[in-house]
Prior knowledge:
The complex is a heterodimer.
Chain A: H1 3-12, H2 25-34, H3 36-55, H4 65-75, E1 82-85, H5 91-112, H6 126-129, H7 142-152, E2 168-177, E3 180-188, E4 194-200, E5 209-211, E6 217-219, E7 221-224, E8 227-234, E9 237-243, H8 247-259
Antiparallel strand pairs in A: 1-2, 2-3, 3-4, 4-9, 5-6, 7-8, 8-9
Helix pairs in contact in A: 1-2, 1-3, 2-3, 5-8
Chain B: H1 9-20, H2 24-35, H3 38-54, H4 65-84, H5 114-132, H6 136-147, H7 152-159, H8 163-187
Amino acid sequence: MNCDRCREWLSENAGRILPQAQPGCDEVRLHLFWCADCRVEAEAYRDLPARLRAAAPRPEPPADFWRRASAAMDRAEPRSPFRIRTLAPGWTAGLAAALTVSLSFAAYVAQSGRAPAMKNPVAVYSEACDPGGALDLPTNDPERASRWINERSRLTMPIVNLKLARATLIGAKIVNQPEGEIPALAFLTPEGEAILMLSRDSGLPAGQWSPVQDGRYRYNVSHYGSVRMSTWAIGESRYTLAYPGSFPRLLELSRAAARHCDTVNEPFH
Amino acid sequence: MTLPGLGSKPDLRREFEALAIPLQRDLYAFAFRLTGRREEAEDLAQEALLRAYKSFHRFEKGTKFKAWLFRIATNLYINSYRRKKRRPVPLAFEELGTEDHPLEIPDASPGLQPEKTAMARAAAIELWQTVDRLPEPYRLAVILCDVEELSYEEAAAVMKTPIGTIRSRLFRGRRWLREHLTAGEEERG
């Protein structure tokens, strides 16, 4: 072990240097025995977390801190965390593409009755849904939007001839998750019912695939206040469909939507 | 009607308060370390508490509430930071203790002479100002792991990054701190 490697190890294991048994610890000990410079470095790293904790400011909260928090809680209901926000016009086509991919997938699941085996990410659109990200669609024209999305998102299969299902976009919601705000779309079906489609890449359990065996995944749906949600994962991203009704009805709608979509990439085989 | 998996509102409130009240000081101090300003810290901590309460029915019992609460605060902070497109304001001396809000920096060496205590406090303030100058991702990793003593796994969950990324940020952050602290000490002779 040389000095560079030793110092790298010391930094990675700050505060946990001798005598704890960490991988590589013996080599480091041996090096420290011979190297005075690294011993100085080791002392510095060992002390660093403790020094930081000692130096960290610990201001007291104001006297009325909890009273104010409590008053805010009095006004709030622990609830299904949706609130309406008007959709920026440019979002429409891009997020519609996401919905299309989602509905196709839901239809596939409904038909096959099982979760697909996980493969490499087929469609990762969370980036396109990121309000702080690159979503700035230049057009609402589906073809141009498709092209734009294909150029910018990490789709391994292109969206072709993007068309949305019969559902009509009625607005967008920002879903307040503990991890932050997540954009969602609200669609109105011909039956007069609303569908929410949201993207998420969090690990919170609102329902998700869980591995069973042989690369197969079980699909779990969980309740979310009065809204029933379904979440699935593609690669590292999770996608959620929320529908204020029964899950079978959601699948029925998804199937219907898929029949009206030309954007069927059949990503899962 | 109580939905499956949900308790009644008073039950939830009691349960939430039992977990949150003991952490209010930690949360406020954490928010202060992130933002560097009392007003912003209070806003952040209040908002984190409110969001946590609203989402409390989704909190997984048996997991660490503090990590969950800090995760909410961190994400609020990150979102706010992104929106404002600016670095957090480094801690100012005037923020570090006023007559109304005396700041308690723990005395690492009780029993020292008053002037030595003052020097220790000044050194602590300087150290923390060095932390504040850390590039943001490293700063967050250092605060979460070294100051708040979250495990790598917990910090990775808070920052929504792989554990390897946390380790790497910590490595770089600690090295950056070491270099800058050493440089400062050498300048002072």
